[in-house]
Amino acid sequence: MNAAENWTTIAKSEEIEEGIGREFLVGTRIVAVFRVDGQLFAIDGICPHQGGPLADGAVRDGCVTCPWHGWQFELTSGRHTISGRSLAETFPIRNRDGIVELIVADEV
Ligand code: FES
């Protein structure tokens, strides 16, 4: 895959506030985007437990907590903090000249 051809613009950088999740529809996927200590993260926006909105979750210590039943996922890996299993997909994300872009692999 040539990643350079698959970046999708989702927002201006200033639209992603520190510690407040934003939800985006990218292709057919809902993606939750966070900024933590200035760094951007993108994770599947649909909780793998029962479909809760991860963009509405609280972020602490590099993890997002699903607002529905409290499952927690590492923003860097999508790993469930208790089981250690990679349950939530994560996506490459970058800030390029003030524009936030990400790659969703199965975007159509
Ligand atoms: S739907 Fe996310 S923890 Fe249950």
TrEMBL record:
Give a single Pfam family match. Answer: Rieske
Might you give the EC number(s) for this enzyme? 1.7.1.4
| GO MF term set | 2 iron, 2 sulfur cluster binding; metal ion binding; nitrite reductase [NAD(P)H] activity
Looking up SUPFAM superfamilies in the UniProt record yields: ISP domain
Keyword vocabulary terms for this entry: 2Fe-2S, Iron, Iron-sulfur, Metal-binding, Oxidoreductase
PROSITE patterns this protein is in?
RIESKE (PS51296)
Q: Which residues form the Rieske domain?
A: 7-102
UniProt-listed InterPro entries: Rieske_2Fe-2S, Rieske_2Fe-2S_sf
Protein name in UniProt:
Assimilatory nitrite reductase [NAD(P)H] small subunit
Species assigned in the record:
Rosistilla carotiformis
Recorded name of the encoding gene: nasE
